[in-house]
Structure of Glyoxylase-like metal-dependent hydrolase (Beta-lactamase superfamily II):
Amino acid sequence: MREKLQHVAGRVWLYPHDPDPEAIGACVGVIADDRGSVLIDAGNSPAHAREVQQAIAAEGLPAPRWLVYTHHHWDHTWGAAAWPDVEVVAHSSAVDLLTAEAERPWSHQYLRDQVALDPKLGPSFRARALAVPDFGELAIVLPHRTFDDALTLPTGVELRHVGGSHAPDSIVALDPGSSVLLVGDCYYPPPFHLRTDDDGPDLAMARRLLAEKHAVSVDAHSAPRSGS
C-alpha cells in the first residue's frame, strides 16, 4: 500500500498519487458521507482500487456509493470493476470513449504490439503493464449515469463539465461545504502520444478554476494546493 488516506479538509480525504512518474498512479478522492461516500476516480487497476478500499476501511469511513470519473483515461477508470455496489457517474461524452477502450483486446502482448507500432505509447503502455499483471481481472466499466453540463449528487457534491485538450469529457468535482475542488487532469496538455511541441498546460482554464477561490484544489498527480 502506498500510504494511508490523507485528510484534506472537511469531509474530503485523498489516497495520494504515486510519486513515481513511470507508474502513472492518479490520486483517488473520497468525500465521506453517511449516505454513502463519493469516490473521485477509480484507481488505475483493480489492485490499486483494493489498496484504496483497505485505506477507507482503516479510517472507518462510510463505504462508497458513487464513483465519479473525472475523465475516461485508464489511470482514472481501470480500477472500477473492483468497486462493488457503486453507481458510476461521468460526462456523457465518456460513454463512446470508454466503449471504444473496452473493445480493445487488452493484454501484455497487445501493449507490446502497440508500442512497436507507435513508440510514443511507450510510457503509458509500460505503466499499464505494471499496473495490471493479470488482464483477466480487467473490465472497463461504462458509466451508469451521465450528464452534459452539471450534476449535483444526493450528498451535495457538485460535478461540472469543463472539457479541455487533455480529455474532452473532463469534469471537476466540488464539495462546497469543505471548499475543496478536485480537478482530475483537466488543465493538463494532451496525452504524451498525442502531444505536439506547441502543447502545454491550459493556463487559462487553471486561472478560471483558481479564480473560484476554493480553500483547496487537488489535481490527480500533484499534492493538494491550499488557497488560490
In short: The domain at 6-105+131-226 is CATH 3.60.15.10 (Metallo-beta-lactamase; Chain A).
